[in-house]
């Protein structure tokens, strides 16, 4: 890997490749920032990902656009996936763009289900998920009471969008950017690759310092296998050159894609093996998730642990290493 550049101050655009600028924006619900990307697009600019939908983010965007891109109007906003740090500020930015939001169908639909008009169904899906996993009723109530947390960091998603499909090429500044499907972290995540620049805007598919979170998405169906979908996405990225410049949503840009993918695959296999090792007799998802932790988790930690353990168990079930059935409204797992 090449030596990483210094993280730019929040709200300052710095060029990282020809016509590609990095902007770091705060994520106020965790100690982190998100990298979003401004691309020259003829006499205009296009933006990939948006930051969270907060006043601070809109102020920083206003400063960036006026101070550094005042001569180039905003053509469009492209989102890699629906999560609030990636699409939360889209509603504000789209008001300044001449085209509707560009998004894949499942990501746009999920944003509306979580932060738009479909929130009642979203809450029902969350309640069903917590019941099936055998989550403690007191903790389940805490989680459902805070289920609107995401929407607080999400400006209302736009009512209209321009759908793009993974595999489709997007023309930006007379350059063809390939869109590459990467499920598992979100329903229809898209990475963008420019062969002429040898640059990959990776979204959350490949991060340099942390492992991408993969878990069951309650609103997407509890029988799904997001971990296999994520690993399949990594296989697609292996077709890119080893020396591609990876622009991740979190952490520093880096070179060394294939080596990083190998690390992520190895971590996933270790996680799968660990889940299987904790499965003794017949256990619920909640029981497995708790055995994976050395101390009592907070409600938020348990929620993520439930989703992650569920994904591993479904992967193992698809591999026929475990079996599952429903008993008194709870999914139970056991080794085959």
Detailed description of the structure:
The chain has helices at residues 55-68, 84-87, 90-94, 105-115, 119-132, 137-145, 226-237, 257-278, 285-291, 299-318; strands spanning 14-17, 20-27, 32-41, 44-48, 74-78, 101-103, 161-163, 169-172, 175-181, 190-194, 199-203, 245-248, 254-255, 283-284, 322-327, 330-335. The mean pLDDT is 94. A hairpin with a 2-residue loop joins strand 1 and strand 2. With 336 residues, the chain is α+β, with helices and mostly antiparallel strands. It is globular. Helix 7 (226-237) runs antiparallel to helix 8 (257-278) and helix 8 crosses helix 10. The longest helix is centred in the C-terminal third of the chain and has 22 residues, at 257-278. The chain contains 10 helices and 16 strands. The relative contact order is 0.12. It has one domain: Ribonuclease Z/Hydroxyacylglutathione hydrolase-like (Metallo-beta-lactamase, Chain A, 4-Layer Sandwich), CATH 3.60.15.
What's a quick, concise take on this entry?
The protein is an alpha+beta fold and 336 residues long. 35% of the residues lie in helices and 24% in strands.
Describe the secondary structure blueprint for this structure.
Elements: E1 14-17, E2 20-27, E3 32-41, E4 44-48, H1 55-68, E5 74-78, H2 84-87, H3 90-94, E6 101-103, H4 105-115, H5 119-132, H6 137-145, E7 161-163, E8 169-172, E9 175-181, E10 190-194, E11 199-203, H7 226-237, E12 245-248, E13 254-255, H8 257-278, E14 283-284, H9 285-291, H10 299-318, E15 322-327, E16 330-335
Parallel strand pairs: 4-5, 6-7, 11-12
Antiparallel strand pairs: 1-2, 2-3, 3-4, 8-9, 9-10, 10-11, 12-13, 14-16, 15-16
Helix pairs in contact: 4-5, 7-8, 8-10, 9-10
